[in-house]
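Researcher: Hi, I'm a grad student and pretty new to this. My advisor asked me to get structures for two proteins we've been looking at. I'm not sure of the right format, so I'll just paste the first sequence and hope you can take it from there.
Model: That works fine. Here's the first sequence with its structure tokens right after it:
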Amino acid sequence: MKFGKELRSQMVPEWEGAYVNYEYLKTLLKDIQHYRQLHVPPPPNPPGLTRRLSLYRNFSGLTGLKVPNSPTTSTDRTDQDIERQPILVNAVKRPNGEDGFETTFLADREDGGEYELVFFRRLDDEFNKVVKFYKGKVEEVLKEADELNRQMDALIAFRIKVDDPEHSWFETSAAVDMNQLASAAATSAAVLSTSLSSGKKSESKRSGDHMEIIDEDRSNGRSNNRPAPLEILDRVKINSSVDTPLSTIKVVLQVPSQNELKFSNDNLQKVEGQLRTVFIEFYYKLKLLRSYSFLNTLAISKIMKKYDKITSRSASRSYMRMVDNSYLGSSDEVRRIMDRVEISFIKHFANSNRKKGLKALKPKTKKQKHGVSASLGFFVGFTAALILALILIIRSRQIIEKEGSKKYMETMFPLYSLFAFIVLHMLMYAANIYFWRRYRINYSFIFGFKVGTALGYREVLLLSFGLAVLALGSVLANLDMEMDPKTGDYKALTELLPAGLVVLVIAIMICPFNIIYRSSRYFLLTCIFHCVCAPLYKVLLADFFLADQFTSQVQAFRSIEFYICYYTSGNYRVRENNCKSNDVYNTFNFIVAGIPYWWRLLQCLRRLFEEKDAMQGWNGMKYFATIVAVTTRTAYTRNNSTEWKVIAWISSGVAAAFSTYWDLVHDWGLLNRKSKNRWLRDKLIIPHHSVYFGVMGFNVLLRLAWLQTLLDLNFSFLHKESLVTIMASLEIIRRGVWNFFRLENEHLNNVGKFRAFKSVPLPFNYDEAEEEDEN
């Protein structure tokens, strides 16, 4: 793999703009190479040789041997090397007032030197950009490490109070086993300011020695600013987080929160669990930051070697010496903090078990298993075979022309169409995952999946085709169109197959055993529960994203309602039901159609009051308009009067226009006429602009699929239930396309703000006012 592709594959997607633009620098080198090929002839012989070497002398090892009696000393050779250097790199004050480096190209008067001068100016800009970003991120982790120190002090004191509440003794060494993660924070300002100006490793070493002295002073208890161990608890409170229905209700009712410390084992386990998660996320951030430093240093080294090769100069040594002495190459704060995090995590959260601690801190990336691909191929083939068998049986038996086909379409077809909706949605999600990965959209971070547990598109395809095999098998087993002449009804066992399949799917979803991707199943169940309980839970992206998926599964909700009615009030043995004439069923048919939109409306209201964002209010109005449109369309299907038709047309038109505008402008970030990509965004992931315009037209077209309800379209070759299923499937396909561009826009927003890590709440909250008074 070429380095450019390797660099792109290993970089943090949200930090892509902060890396060295390796490909752009390569294009500048190609310009230099092209000019030199046209205007600068290559030297006839290698430098320093006056005649062509024989083949024997090249392989004899005699070339380049030192001459014992050579009059040139090592000092003379060093001076000559310095004189031959084509560049000088100096630390300067940049026009924006920041420290940086600037390369002076000494051969700019040579033929083609202007191309090389441009190359070094762009290289300096890229390097200074990297150093500035890295320096800012290191400052952030030093502050976070300092906060983790205080959290660990409070945790250790909390443990002592829980284990032995009657004594106030404290083992000093236990409190300082953290080794003070951010002990470097006290001297970080000096290190950051001197590393750019001096560029000496010795100063970094001295700062490291100073950090060790601070550690020793604090471990011996001689720090004046360090509070007495158990006195920490006097200024600490438990952070109250509104993440449960009860806590939300208390906030609405303005019930004062009880955030005082309660020294119990349950609270201790909660605090330890929170801090454990914080440590893992912090360590992951440090790993990515160290990788960032290494990859950019390697990229600069690679590009300078290419420059030397093209120009036959020796500039890489001087430039890389500057890189090594810069803050990017000489700073070791990240490595020091990583070591201390490992030591502290292993002792306090892994019971001093190093293997267990490192396994938790360094989760292994999920590897593709050959068994998944093999099983996927088996189920795909099985599905194709079942579909072919189903077609052949229908044609050979002429089932469509039989008398019982109408009853089948009105009873059994709506039952099995539920699985068609689910499988189609899973197939679209698998396609989304494939294209998200292809275009490096960090969907696992955006959704908040735990590292190493996010399903790939192969796993989702395996689940979808597995469900398709079960559903098609049930259809083939239950394809009878005529009653048994002896019993006068259909086979009870086969008639119960759809309900049994639903029960099986629910049982798999809630199965507590670690099979069939338990972590993903539980994540989905948690999001579903949050949607159902809206607005009692804080709205996360995964929650409202899933609720949006439900808005495209209205017909699936109606199928579930039909399941309940058919198997409880109807006589399924003879495929008869009185659901459509049942007033309760018809009433709930109105309610069920609006449930997904109601969930989204409540989520928008929660975000409106919590985030004070007016756009959430307008978004809620969109879903309210959709609820009105769905309700009026349902009423029109029940009562084909002119009044209901006019009301349905008006409400549906308003909802469709509102929703289409919101999809394109807010969810996708498109239709920006002032953008450099007219009517699109400034930043696009897909290189072909025609894709965006085509998708916008496709979205508008499928948004108008509801027209078939109001136009009373009837096709002689399609049953009414088949037409409803096709229209519902088109909406699922539209939602699948929407998913990709919605997450693309979210990813670009994260990239613009360099957000690559999820925010984990800390368990303890220090009273800053008391600390300032004491200091």
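Researcher: Oh nice, that was easy. Here's the second one.
Model: And its structure:
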Amino acid sequence: MSTWAVPGYAESLQLGAGASGRVVLAVHEETGVPVAVKYLSESLRTRPGFVHGFRAEARLLSGLESPHVAGLYEYVESPDGAAIVMELVEGVSLRALLKTRGPLPPEAALVVLKGSLLGLADAHRVGVVHRDYKPDNVLVLPDGGSKLVDFGIAADAGTSAGVAGTPPYMAPEQWTGAPASPAADVYAATATFFECLTGHRPYAGDNLAELALRHVDAPIPADEVPESVRDLVRHGLAKDPALRPAHAEAFVAELEAAAAASYGPGWEERGRRALAGLVALLALLLPSARSPRTTTDTARTVLGRTPGGAGTWLPGPAGMLVSGAAVLLGLLLTYGLAYLPAAADRQETAARALATTSAAPGGEEPAGPAASPLPSSSASSSSPSSAEPAEPSPSDPESTAPTTAVPAEETTDPAEAPPATAPTSAPPTTPAPPSAPSAPAVKDVTVSEFRQTGPTTATATVTVTADGPGPLSITFAWFTGSTAGQPGVQDGAPETYERSGATQYTLTVTHAFRSAGCYWTVRSTTAPASADGGASQQLLTRGCDLQ
């Protein structure tokens, strides 16, 4: 396990751990805001593919602003590690709720589905596909609301990102590596909804091949759910993605119409009250109730035959083809993971932040010259949890790709925890008092990306290169206008971030524009001032009709 910690955060206890990394509860030292810090494991940090995926997760989250998704505060990378600092959501995983309380009442199941679908809808709106929707990645809050977490294998819609996901919830097209599609998220959400209503998944299998066959060919077991929601289940679990709702927002509209018709106008309030009562019974699983003595959380589901399934059925030609692909996938995972190389030796240099991605959910601006990447207003009410990585198991059909992170809510018995290794003692030394670093010369400021992420939002990525690790500040200013090549009028107050400890910094910041204009401009400057005076970039907004 890596001992590197993100500078500026005081860690208190570990929330979960596995082969892909660990998640710890921490407090931002400047503001006192609790956060969840997700570290990439030491063994994977030396593998470029895993580091690239970890950065991609942070990039996708930085452009996603939603009250139904655990927000990103900061991405930090150093010679000794990489970490994503996220909102700490005070909630219990839907997996824990189902495991301890059994099937949910229909109104409660509809509320859970609606809340997490709203999170998916916000992601789909900016072109992000989650690809790993399941009960583990839905957190139910004490007030009965819910949030979606763990975008570890998310991808831009339409991209070919390979076969990945959690098999019991994977859409038929996911098994073949089809391009990422919002319709696949709708399928997974419906499979989770089915499990909420019945206590078991729509399809079971003893291995990947059998499970793939059932998802591709087996009849939809809609008769097992209440008649009032059978059409929802049939539509969401359609084998052909073209026959499903195209995105989560469309499915929310169907859900609300079906729920109101069957259960009346008060269905949502009754469902939230039922969920709040169930979470209250599991209060000890909330992050705020955990103590430093809590051991590592893990979650693993072993698939078996579930009573009351779809009945006797024989696969068709398409199912046999996917079955063969699933067998091959299982073999590749089994033998591929066995040869993961050991982590490289730790570098002797002290941990220095090399790259930091800051995105303040809600477009809030840092206050003061030493602004924190954490938004002071929303973070104070932020509550615990985020995605907790679990160890991928090639022999378990629950895990198909080493990049899949599984949040955990089961607490391991301390007697089963591996014994701790006592550190080697060393004579105490008295470190010399550090000298204050001098301000560096800023050599270059570059806007590497500036893109529109919504009707009024955009994300800018800036890289700053200096000749030393001394402290510097990076300021973002935003402008709107109607003339190409001219910045126009400043939009909102500038945002300033303080950085030190490295010679290169990359920051990604999201801004919500308040003024109308066909052209948006971002300008980045530094103090000390850079030799080139800073950098700026302009974009033409989508949907702007130029005459």
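Researcher: Is there anything I should tell my advisor about the second?
Model: You could mention this: The first strand starts at residue 9 and ends at 18.
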